[in-house]
Write a structure and sequence with these properties.
The protein is built from two helices and four strands; from the N terminus they run βαββαβ. By secondary structure, it is of the alpha+beta class. The longest helix is centred in the middle third of the chain and has 5 residues. Bound molecules: iron/sulfur cluster (SF4) (2 copies).
């Protein structure tokens, strides 16, 4: 029996891992963002981008872990059902 192997390194951009999502996705409210960048820095998938006081998620790669929502100090990110 053979397991499926990923031979090429750094292929994560080719694999839209958002299809594995937990059933919830983050919604960026864009109301109170202070631009602290905590969501951007702590997202394990690196799928949050933005600048100044406007950040958003690339749902093609988000796995719905909810970390961004937990670390946002002003509760400007909520998790919602798919
Ligand atoms: S839910 Fe998780 S994977 Fe998705 S944007 Fe937030 S921290 Fe990143
Ligand atoms: S964690 Fe919240 S306040 Fe900080 S940049 Fe992200 S959305 Fe803005």
């Amino acid at each position: 029996m053979f397991a499926k192997l990923i031979i090429k390194p750094a292929t994560s951009l080719d694999n839209k891992t958002g299809s594995w999502r937990s059933g919830k996705k983050p919604k960026f409210l864009h109301n109170k963002c202070t631009g602290c960048r905590m969501c951007y820095l702590l997202c394990p998938e690196g799928c949050i981008s933005g600048s100044k006081k406007f950040y958003d998620v690339d749902l093609d790669y988000c796995k719905g872990c909810g970390i961004c929502s937990v670390v946002c100090p002003v509760e400007d990110i909520v998790m919602e059902k798919e």
